[in-house]
Specification:
Blueprint (H helix, E strand, L loop, with lengths): L2 E3 L8 E3 L12 H8 L15
Antiparallel strand pairs: 1-2
């Protein structure tokens, strides 16, 4: 059973992989969610009018 490091930079734990095909790189769903479910940054588009 290979050991891998969690891709969540705030976690950094090592975990064991049972099936390589099923591995998503995260030790738990909470870590996957923290990395993949962030709200995108808001982009403020300002229009400037020159007289």
């Amino acid at each position: 059973m290979p050991e891998k490091k969690c891709q969540n930079p705030n976690c950094d734990k090592t975990y064991h992989v049972n099936e390589n095909e099923q591995d998503d790189g995260f030790c738990c769903y909470a870590c996957w969610e923290e990395v993949n479910c962030k709200e995108p940054e808001k982009i403020i588009d300002k229009e400037f009018v020159l007289d």
